Amino acid sequence: MTHGIRGRTFAVIAASALVSIGMPVNASHAGTLVDLATEAEQLLDKGNGLEAYEKLRSSLSKASEKIPFDIRRAFFVTAKPVVFGNYDRVKENQFPVGSSLITYVEPVGLAWKPNDNGELFSQFTVDFELRNPTGEKLAVQKAFGNFKVESREPLFEIYTPLTLDVSSVPAGDYVLQYTFTDQNSGKTTSIEQKFTLK
Asked: Helices in the chain by DSSP H: which ranges?
């Protein structure tokens, strides 16, 4: 996919969503979560570690139903991560002309729905918009990323690396906005990243 910026070619590449399990979620729906956590602690005291783990996962599932769709983390990284949370964040958002920019993103609060084969799925799209510091739009693309995750139960750690090829973009200051839309709930959230090409 290519987009023109003042006669130059602007290429966008979206990596696939990668998933792992086990995120600590903020307490919501406090009574139920406290009860589940108490039960888990009692099970641990009795030496029933696996049952306690399942109880804690139940509490995470209930919490995730209440968490608004949002982006937990989003920043430029030095290389495309292959595992949730395993990244090296760039020290400054300054890059040489000819670079590709990798953004590490952790969405939370995704809605899960059943599909036809009895599993659950979540799905979100990503739009991008590139602007100069005055707000002039230089490039826009709707749904350049479309990610679908299927599982037999809700997952609590989902991340996606988004790669933006700016190799033909001239030196200067820019603002990159990604807008995420949860296709199951219709909710949206956005992030902005300022960067400089030198």
From this structure: 30-45, 49-66
